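Technical appendix A lists one of the benchmark inputs used to test multi-chain prediction within the project. The record comprises two sequence entries:
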Amino acid sequence: MKIKVTYFGKLIELTGMSSEDIVIEEASVSGVKKALEHTYPSLKTITYQLAENNAILKQGDAIHTTEVDIFPPFSGG
Amino acid sequence: MNERYIRHIQLDEVGSSGQQKLGNAKVLVIGAGGLGCPILQYLATSGIGTLGIVDHDIVSLSNLHRQILYTTADIGKNKALVAQQKLQELNSEINIKAHSVALTVENCLDILKAYDIVVDGTDNFVTRYLINDACLLLDKPMVFGALYKFEGQVSVFNYKNGPSYRCLFPNPPAAGEVPNCNEIGVLGVLPGIIGLLQANEVLKIILEIGQVLSGQILYINTLNYQQRILRFSRNEALINSIKKKAKPEAVATDDCIFASSISLQVLEDIESVLWIDVRELGETPILNAANILKIPLSNFTLTPEIQNDGRRKIFFCQSGIRSKKATQMAIEKGVSNSFSLKEGAPELQYWLKQKQ
């Protein structure tokens, strides 16, 4: 299935865009991560969180919508 | 009624009793930099009765575009002490305490325990996780803010049994994964915006008004005002594993951390400096003097000459990278007044010759 992912922070630079449509095989956090890390292998070593409907998803959660946000931690001050 | 706060008191949601609550509050702001300056200014003028400031760093020229408590005349001075003086001028009716040390595993509980609310205005993951864990151990709310270029995050952790930073990101990113404080640009207004959102959360907590950003993290992109308020839940097992500890442990990552840098450009008094050369033996130029110790980083230990005396301990290497690591280790071992030289040994050799 096709979902829209929106990137935040340095993921915008890493992917070169603020959002895009990606195809996932499984409607779950691991399905989204697998698709992202296939396209962007450097994401495998990067810390990020997925969220949908304004809620952070846990590893193992299913995806219920077609819009997912991808957030890295920030440390600047 | 104190006329200074009349416009606060006129608000039904604040009133005299609310202003009294602000006057009774004790708030600690860790980091008096980009985030810390606006947080401190507004908390001071709001009449927070006791305001603590933690910062071991000194003011440098490149700070001034966003750290608005400081002027060019303050370059080279300790931020906590300068901030204390400026804030006292803003509001002479409050108590302001400067802690001009780096927050470490050793001193964090002692410093934090005297305050009701802790505000994270730091710029590195090591200190953020340290504050988070210390707040868990002491059961104090932590008002968090962080930046990346034109974006910011704000949240309140450990508030009334709410989640902590570790519930969102259990462990810090690996070394080098996220650009650190000194490596990345920032538009001067961004820490002002994010810092004031943090100050707003502090006031809401004390006044018990509105909805505190607990269990939620606000993301804002100031270029397009895209925003998210994301819910996240408490990870009980993780929190319990932290709370079991007698004191926080430093997390293993590698950003700019405590490596407070100092530049030859701001050094004047060469008499009160102990230099520590952390290059490997044989690296050139070789610098010899009575006040230059040689402790290669590969075999780094603190020798008896490195004491908490009045002298500045300035670590140097060839380019300023290894010296940061050494400085961090020294600070973690409790050596105050430790700095990493921004320049390298060749520049130092030239500088020392000029001073002779």
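Chain B has a mean pLDDT of 91. The first strand of chain B starts at residue 26 and ends at 30. Comparable benchmark entries are summarised in Table A2.
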